[in-house]
Amino acid sequence: MIMKTSVRIGNQTAFSACSVTEPFEFAVDSGFDAFEWFPDKKSTGAGWRADDLSAALRKWIRNTASANDIRLTVHSGVDFRVAGPNALQPLTGDIHFARDIGAVLFVMHLLHADDKRSLVESILSLVFALKQDCIMLAVENAPETTPEDVNGFFDFVADRGIDGVGMCFDIGHANL
Questions:
Q1: For residue 124, with 0-12 CB atoms within 10 Å meaning exposed, 13-18 middle and 19 or more buried, which class applies?
Q2: Neighbour order of strands in the sheet with 105-110
Q3: Which residue did the predictor score with more confidence, 73 or 118?
Q4: Which of 27, 131, 138, 168 has the most other CB atoms within 10 Å of its CB?
């Protein structure tokens, strides 16, 4: 049996862009079929947070992506750490944003955690929150993530029968 696969080509937001929508408009104009929204507000004020985007803008993003067959992803902030009983609270705005724009994938960096139980409980909560809106979770290797961290995480997830979690492999991060 021959399986047909397709690779989508896209870009992502940039804190250095003139406006939050400029990179998305470039994707649309260039015929890209993938786009990642990366809320990355800097201490200088450059960039954006999910809460900065109005309901009307979210609707425009969703409709524009749908009309142009653009698959949307939302990336959590790079400083987000999954651990502790209220670990997902900082992601609430990003999760709602992903739902509002019709994203199909939510990406977060896989960062080392000493407390594996807390990590998995947090991941489970996130997976269930995302599944309600048919959004998959992808963990991304961070520059400080080792292959052992990734393998250990996915062994832990598999041992507990958690589905709906995949990997986003960032070759630039791996190269660092």
A1: middle
A2: 10-12, 34-37, 71-75, 105-110, 136-141, 165-168
A3: 73
A4: 27
